[in-house]
Amino acid sequence: MSKYINVAIIGATGYIGLELIKLLIKHPKVKIKNICAQRSIGKSMYKIDSSIKKKSLPKITNLTSLNFNNIDLLFTALPNGEAQKISKKLNSKVKLIDLSADFRLESSKNYKKWYNITHKSKNLIKHSIYSIPELISVKLDKFRIIACPGCYPTSILIPLVPIIKNKLINTKNIIIDSKSGYSGAGKNLHKKFKFKNIYESISAYGISSHRHTAEIDQQLNKISKNKINVQFTPHLLPMFRGILSTIYVNLNKNISAKKIYKYLKKYYKNKYFIKFAKFNTPIGTGDIIHTNFCKISVCNDRKKNKAIILSAIDNLIKGGSGQAMQNMNLLCGFKEQMGFK
């Protein structure tokens, strides 16, 4: 491994792209070689976000000017469907870390069903890996593409996967209520939610049809003998960033909420970015905003055979750019928390 890696970011002016640049400019092993966006070509990133002041950053260019032979790693923070097209242009030496949904689903048919897009790079799906860093058990450098999970699934799968693996809960009736800041909808927010008073109300959306349901089901079914279909309802809150997922589970025989709590703490004891509140303590997003941490709390339900799990993340960092950089660190053999301090 050389002293640094050369990276390019495509989709740099969206919420996730901006956060990614802010993280990468602080990383001691990264050189940002290219910054691409459809709009603002020729401008400096300072003109897009005044908090980005590093003078050595390249100016914004379009994708056609990017020389893939000069980079080691490409980040794509684009609308669904675009990373598929770009992936076909890459040589085998360039790794791709994608923050869209293009390589999250292992079936192109399933992708078509949920996203209504015919996958344009089906042959590369088998060369991709869905990676929540705390849950991945294989070396990422074996894969050409790392698919970063969606923000909602990140908050949900981190607490659920270990307890389903260890058969601590009944998988037949898992209910998930997630609430997100409106930045999760991207900069085209008002096109997606034309008739909602976004800044003064809370709105449920995507009931029984939110696209992230597909990857939640996929990942849970991979670790369970029984088919799992969760009940998942997302909500949009009048705040800019942050996600709080409330997960209602039925406990298996001789399992208590306290046992769930102790097991999760033990499972994640060596995972730097996972934090725990004291048992039976409500939490919110305030503690983790602008960080790459996921904070978990396990609480008693009033019924003995049930438990309530709370999981809080920053959707733009742990649910997006931070998780991408964390995956980069794992891919390149760097310390997992490098660049975050």
Main attributes of the structure:
341 residues; alpha/beta; Rossmann fold; Dihydrodipicolinate Reductase, domain 2; 2 domains; 7-stranded parallel beta sheet; 7-stranded mixed beta sheet; 9 helices; globular
Q: What is the CATH superfamily of the largest domain?
A: Dihydrodipicolinate Reductase, domain 2
Q: For this structure, what is the CATH class of the largest domain?
A: Alpha Beta
Number of helices: 9
User: What is the share of helical residues?
Assistant: 10-25%
What structural class is derived from the secondary structure elements?
Answer: alpha/beta
The appropriate CATH architecture of the largest domain is: 2-Layer Sandwich
Q: How many whole angstroms does the radius of gyration measure?
A: 20 Å
Largest sheet: 7 strands, parallel
What ranges have pLDDT less than 50 throughout 5 or more consecutive residues? Answer: none
On the 0 to 100 scale, the average pLDDT is 94
Q: Give the total of beta strands.
A: 14
Tell me the domain tally.
Answer: 2
- Secondary-structure element series: EHEHEEHEHEEHEHEHEEHEEEH
- How far apart are the first and last residues' alpha carbons, in Å? 22 Å
